[in-house]
Write a structure and sequence with these properties.
412 residues, nine-stranded mixed sheet, five-stranded antiparallel sheet, binds glyoxylic acid, binds manganese (II) ion
């Protein structure tokens, strides 16, 4: 059976074009949420959405929607397809952008084919998915589902001292639509896997059935600054050493527990940050994840017990601030099955899998049936400029998204 297919050339060209926006003078791609660079990316996306003849809506938290509807289906709840276009620091070009541009491509394809969808189809680009500049991550989709009040989200303080609200105003993306007013009938997000599983198994399509829980905390350790040369080791209150012990503890604890949990200390800064001064303060972030809520709680408790012990052993004071906490999510089994069936119909190998990364789909799953499609990541690398997916796999994933969307909206 022959299937209509997306315009591969247009999709790949747009991924490349968006990937060129936000490069610094060293050629590194950094499009942090609501930054100048991200504004340019947003403008380009909106340009494409408008050129495709869709209605553009921007809500108060800056989420962008491109809506394809007609007089007959406008009263129906829409199918939303989407992801994000903000990036981490020194990012790859596929994370998030692929899902947004493939969603637009699916709508354009259906439109060009003269399909008449029984529901509106919407492409969504959610604000601040990465959470690098403003915590928590998945903030735009969290607000969309009512998990965080829009006023609180707008007041979020960034790593650079800005507030998200003021930055959205500055870049012209503080929209007027009330967040959450676009309620989905269903939501599907296409994304690169960002891990090694699909490539290792020579499988093109991941039908993502669940997503692990995420716990983010900021830890501050206060010790006493003193002379690096004159202070005997036994007399130190060394905030830097205490911080280093946290990283080691997490690695050894997870290895001992034999769980699939992962832990990352991705940022750390010392005060006064001088070569010959014992750090008086260490501030760092901890990212803990596990697909099982009980295990994630046990890991959080183990960290908390260790920090209390560390205070005694290293003569320091420790405080912890929670930045994000999301429980594991189980996706909609009917959509997962539709992904598998669609892959098989195109002669593509698929497997069910767990998402290790956080995604907007985990938020939308609170209010509507949702699931995700993954395609392979070369060497499992992501959040890195070496992030790469074979163009044939990008096209295959977008075609599966097209087929799943067609099944979900009912079209003629
Ligand atoms: C988002 O990319 C995350 O999983 O941190
Ligand atoms: Mn992403
Ligand atoms: Mn990411």
């Amino acid at each position: 059976m022959s299937h209509p297919s997306i315009n591969a050339e247009r999709l790949l060209a747009r991924i490349g074009e968006l990937g060129a926006i936000g490069r610094d003078d060293r050629g590194q791609l950094t499009r942090l949420a609501a930054s100048d660079a991200e504004k340019l990316g947003r403008d380009r996306l909106v340009g494409w959405i408008e050129a495709a003849g869709l209605d553009v809506a921007v809500d108060r938290i800056g989420n962008i929607f491109g809506i394809w509807s007609n007089r007959d289906n406008a009263e129906q709840l829409p199918l939303i397809l989407g992801s994000h276009i903000d990036t981490v620091i020194n990012a790859g070009i596929y994370d998030g952008c692929y899902g947004v541009l493939a969603a637009l491509e699916v709508i354009e394809t259906l439109k060009e084919q003269g399909s008449i969808s029984e529901r509106p189809i919407v492409v969504a680009a959610f604000t601040n998915e990465e959470g690098v500049r403003y915590a928590p991550d998945m903030l735009g989709s969290l607000v969309h589902v009512g998990g965080l009040a829009v006023e609180a989200a707008l007041a979020t303080l960034g790593t650079d001292g800005t507030t998200l609200g003021s930055e959205l105003v500055r870049i012209g993306y503080a929209g007027s639509v009330e967040p959450g007013s676009l309620k989905p009938h269903a939501y599907v997000e296409l994304h690169i896997e960002q891990g090694p599983v699909l490539e290792r198994e020579a499988t093109t399509i991941g039908a993502v059935e669940n997503l692990q829980g995420i716990s983010w905390q900021r830890v501050t350790i206060d010790g006493v600054a003193n002379h690096a040369g004159t202070t005997p080791m036994a007399m130190r209150c060394d905030a830097g050493l205490a911080a280093a012990r946290v990283g080691l503890f997490l690695r050894e604890h997870i290895a001992r527990s034999n769980a699939p949990s992962v832990a990352t200390i991705g940022t750390m800064r010392f005060e006064p940050n001088a070569i010959n001064v014992i750090p008086s303060r260490a501030v760092f972030t901890v990212d803990l994840r596990d697909p099982d809520e009980d295990r994630l709680r046990m890991l959080e408790a183990a960290l908390s017990d260790f920090l209390r012990r560390l205070e005694q052993e290293e003569h320091v004071k420790i405080s912890v601030e929670r930045l994000a906490r999301f429980e594991p999510v189980i996706f909609d089994s009917a959509i997962v099955e539709a992904i598998e069936v669609s892959a098989t119909a195109r002669g593509l190998r698929s497997r069910r899998m767990t998402s290790g990364a956080g995604h907007d789909a985990q938020m939308i799953a609170r209010i509507a049936p949702a699931a995700m499609i993954f395609v392979p990541s070369r060497n499992g690398i992501s959040h890195n400029p070496r992030e790469h997916t074979d163009p044939a796999d990008l096209v295959a994933g977008a075609n599966v998204l097209l087929d799943v969307a067609t099944r979900l909206v009912g079209s003629r």
